[in-house]
Amino acid sequence: MEVIIRPDADAAAELVARIVAKELRANPHLVLGLATGRTMESVYRLLVRLHRKEGLDFSLCSSFNLDEYVGLAPDDPYSYRHYMNEHLFQHVNIEPRNTHLPDGQAANLDAECRNYEAAIAKFGGIDLQLLGIGRAGHIGFNEPLSAFKSRTRVKSLAPLTLEQNAGLFGGVDKVPRRAITMGVGTILESRRCLLLAAGAEKAEIVAKAVEGPITSMISASALQLHARCTVVVDESAAGRLEGSEYYRRIFETEPEWEEFRKMD
Ligand code: F6R
Known about the structure:
globular, 7-stranded parallel sheet, 3-stranded antiparallel sheet, 9 helices, alpha/beta
């Protein structure tokens, strides 16, 4: 795992968007794993800008989202399909048929989860998985105690997650209780993981996930087992990290990051 600290949320999101753009240019057939949530909104805004201004081409790539609420129709304004259409898909040249989210309205949810895993495998697996982190330490909707070998399945949302999403839904009682989510095992199989966190309210959980013990109580800590995981945080979200001086030096000196340092 490597940790990159950027001065603010905009710079952190820009780095993530630039990494996605670089990977997409290197491999136009990239299979992207996508996340939703407030943190990702600026990443998608920047990707849309790169598409418009620099011709970033999504025509051959495909995508699989991490999760979708059970019971919400794709055109429900609170569904993640709707979020993706609004924030990314309808503004870039990605083929709609190459975009995948679990169907939260499937009559047979278990079969839907199995089919989702099969579709990921059919596309050759996920090349680059974008991740946010919830205050309960989840990646996707892998709530505390999610098995590290878990695959796509239905999960009950943790109280902290319901609380975190209450604002969007206009009250905790309106937040769907369950979601289909890729499993921790599914996420760990992606070739590269890129986790973005910003803001002081994420500082404690980021420190636990990155520097704390690996535990299923904090699903994001499983990323310590991933061979290629980059955690991008802003100064506020980095506030509780003990090794921040070392992490800063990596971004400032490692050749891999040279082209991204020029953004500053
Ligand atoms: C959503 C998802 C979640 C979010 C996380 C952070 O698809 O996978 O794990 O990434 O809850 O959400 P925000 O960015 O709203 O704080």
